[in-house]
Amino acid sequence: MDVHHTDDAVTRRIKAFTERVAQVKANDLYFYNQPIEEILPGMKVRVNGRTMGMYASYSYLGLINHPRINEAAKRAVDKFGTGTNGVRSLAGSLTLHTELEETIAHFKHAEAAITYSSGYATNLTVVSTLMGRGDYVFSDKLNHASIVDGCLMSGAEFRRFRHNDMEHLEGLLRNAPPDVAKLVIADSVFSMDGDIIDLPKMVELCKKYNAWLMIDEAHSVGVLGERGTGIEEHFNMYGAIDIKMGTLSKTIPSVGGYVAASKDIITYLRHASRAYIFSAALPPAQAAAANEAFKVILDEPWRIERLNQNTKQFIGGLKSMGFDTMLTETAIVPVLCGDDNTAFAMTRECQHNDVFVLPVVSPAVPEGLARLRATVTAAHEPDEIERAMEVIGEAGKKLGLIK
Ligand SMILES: *Cc1c(COP(=O)(O)O)cnc(C)c1O
After folding, report:
1. What angle (nearest 5°) sits at the alpha carbon of residue 64, between those of residues 36 and 255?
2. Where are the domains of the chain?
């Protein structure tokens, strides 16, 4: 340890954490950062030499390693190399970036789009560029951390409404001064619970109270709508959302984030958002992969059908065994465990039987609502899902969650 900092608050904070992690590891309850040695077909992975069914993936349509997408990435490397010359505004903008943004705008039924280096950076920079001191942001209590951070960074008045509670949202909107700028912001599909935001009611409230609407579609692209284009398609409400944000790291097997919106909003963001102006462009391979992936989704609608079938099988099966899967309607399936230790024990049982799931415990979710957060994808085979459910069921019986 550095002798210059023996006893300041930072040293103590680091020490406390080091001890906590060591203790969890000593109890064989540390499930994070596991080294995945290989990605295998059929949503399997090799971890510590063992082949496991992967039930913690965000690759909802199973597009990782899709030949068309891999090829597009390789072609981009051959043509442009592995990096860019810097930030987009100066020397880093490639034709690949423009193509990707046009593809996203088309896919999201929007006039224009802008990309950033991650979904996290996108929420941070977009909320804090649009909103500022004196403005009001209204955020669902279960919104993703990147939205919360963006709201705090903006310096706007920050109001949180109870999860998917439109009456509470209306009360907060009514109480805000009528003449201030307002932004309502929520996840489309909630990343810990798998339920869907009440978009129709939210749109109605935004109109009534003259508020902008921003929706984070990290878990709805490739998941909601018959064509997989997201929440506007799901509710047949094209054009209802002012700012459609998404990530290129989940269904889209790349990295990066984007916003699709009106031409004017995108022009503003391109010249005012700091994560665009002061951070490097997406690498060519990742931009090309993302561009191809949006096209593959439209060309292969059977993947969405498969995802829906697998989701139904998984949720239905777990429920019929007696598990509480909360309000999920999507591929994100919480298996409620209650206290943190039960969630850890469930995880250990599942992983020892080659089912890769992860626990979500407080503070990521409220105390007492610890869970396994399992995800199912289009790439799982029905008999594999059956086997995984048997393993989860055996674990649940052993720990007294089900009979
Ligand atoms: C994953 C996620 C993000 C962040 O996206 P990254 O590209 O991984 O940075 C933002 N919002 C939600 C709801 C997410 O689930």
Report:
1. 85
2. 27-56+301-398, 67-299
